Amino acid sequence: MLGIDRQAARYTWTAALVLILLWLVYQVRSTMFVFILAILLAYLLSPLVNLLNRVLPSRTRTPGLALAYVIFVAAVVLIGVKIGTTVAEQAKAFEKDLPNRISTFEAPNPKLPEVINTVKKQALDKLRSQVASGGSDALSTMAQAGVKFLSVASDLIFVVVIPILSFFFLKEGPTIREHILELIGDGPKRELLDDVMADVHLLLLHYMRALVVLSLATFTAYSIFFSIMGVPYSILLAVMAAIFEFIPMIGPLTSSVVILLVSVISGSPAVPVIVFLLAYRVFQDYILSPHLMGQGVEVHPLLVLFGVFAGAEIAGIPGTFLSVPILALVRILYRRIRKSRMATRLTEPKLVA
Known about the structure:
By secondary structure, the protein is mostly helical. The protein has 2 domains: 29-121 and 130-183, no CATH class; 186-345. The chain is 85% helix and 0% strand. It is built from 10 helices and no strands. It has helices spanning 6-27, 29-55, 62-106, 114-143, 149-182, 188-229, 234-244, 250-266, 270-293, 301-347. Helix 2 (29-55) packs across helix 5 (149-182) and helix 2 (29-55) packs across helix 6. 17% of the residues are buried.
């Protein structure tokens, strides 16, 4: 009679449980994304909350949390009113002026070779057809606005739910951490879990700080340069570039292509814009971003590209946004487990032949 290897059966059962868990996470990925956004928002507000708790004479975190949320909401409203109005005006102007600017740019330039003028005309015809189809799609979407009202309302509910979840994560974070550690008894496994959680805590702190600072730096630099150079729709383009900073590698490349295309069609000098975009990417990718991210978030560019495309295939835009922190988290787990196993092998008594 064939026997069953208990160790092999245990490994098989563990692998099956992991696969089932991954399948369940994939099925509830939309809800998971909401909770992840709440956690990231909590880490974004955590430094402000800690600062207020040190200043305010209170033994609990609640007054600091409440004041931090008041400051955060006030800042969001102020920025939205000041910048959002300008962005809306420039977006309307861009939509109105785009056909005329395309027609002006389409005129053959006698200084350029005929081949270039032909290619330019073909590209603009393609762009015009895309704009036209986009307009018809927009009209179709507006006609179905009543049917999609419930979906929009659901998204607005998420906008309210995420800050509420972040409040509870900030308030109960230390307690949640202690409860997780209590699931494992004292020993090497608990020490490993404690180290991993500490590394993840620093990872998320650095990552959220870096994202916000990089986005603000991009908006500031782009808006100032475009305003000085007289590039049309400077605030609109700067806001777009700042938002695309949240998508690793692909986002900045996409925003640069769009900015260059708008500049050329608008008649702005393309060479200074190209030089600025290249210089700023070098500054941000090799100086500012490594300084902000820290060693815990460093991921090889090839892995970042893989994560961005894989995340887009699995979960769309949320997947691309979460690709870098997930890869950094996997890197932390691998390094900690490897370090723990090496320490265990060094402490094991060697057999004497």
